[in-house]
Amino acid sequence: MSDPTRTSQSTRHATGPAGAAARTPAAAVAPTSRHPLAAAFRLLITAAALTGLVLAALGTAAPAQLLTRFTVQANLAAAVISACSAHRAWTGRHPVSPRIAGALVPFLALPALLHHVLPAADTTAFTVPATSTSGFAQALSPQLLYTVTPLATLADWLLLTTPRGLRPSYAWQWPAYPLLYLAFALALPAATGAPSPTVASAVTLGLAICTLPLVTIGIDQVRPAPRLHNNRISPTGISPLK
């Protein structure tokens, strides 16, 4: 792949205005590419995550203790990173690093998987405790935290990001924090306000933590790339026709 910041041998010895223009990196003169629709969609992700967190806090007697739950931490990260990504898409700046933005997919998928597929592990510190009161707001919070935000983040990653941006090294970097959190939940269950996971639940959590990044990276390698239109109106090299 060619480097837009380097110049070819034919342009290195060019003189005059043509030579100066030829030696200018293409990235320095490329127009700003703004994506307002992507920015709006990512703001909706931020709003969904924050709304679910606020409703969860209103339905518990100890809102501050929710910060020790993995679901709350993952949704807070989704809200902050999606807001940052929305700003960058609106202003045309470079997107957030795939190392950070891509980590949201397995981080949000883990509590969603526990809530929808593994109800036996739904009482661990990886999920939000059930509220003692009933009502529409309390029923809406789990839907936002376990369904809407994870699915919207997955759609953002699949449809609005360039594929094959995730590196194999992320497969051991991303599980580092969830595994440390699992060890913390096993060693100090009172600090999280949740019962200690059983041996079966701990093994299931460990396998899910290590498998989800592998699945995410594998999908990233085979998903189709969006069609990019070439907006360059002339070649970057020198020719008699320029």
State mean pLDDT (0 to 100 scale). 84
The H-and-E topology, N to C, reads as HHHHHHHHHHHH
* Integer count of domains: 1
Task: Tell me how many strands there are.
Answer: 0
User: Which residues form runs of ≥5 with pLDDT under 50?
Assistant: 228-242
| Overall helicity | 55-70%
3D architecture notes:
The protein is an all-alpha fold and 242 residues long. The protein has one domain (33-222). 61% of the residues lie in helices and 0% in strands. Helix 4 (36-58) packs antiparallel against helix 5, helix 7 crosses helix 8 (136-160) and helix 10 packs antiparallel against helix 12. The two termini are 24 Å apart. The model is unreliable at 228-242 (pLDDT under 50).
Short structural summary:
The protein has twelve helices and no strands.
Features:
transmembrane helix; membrane
SSE topology sketch:
Blueprint: H1 9-12, H2 16-23, H3 26-29, H4 36-58, H5 70-91, H6 98-101, H7 104-116, H8 136-160, H9 170-173, H10 176-187, H11 189-192, H12 199-222
Helix pairs in contact: 4-5, 4-8, 5-7, 5-8, 7-8, 7-12, 10-12
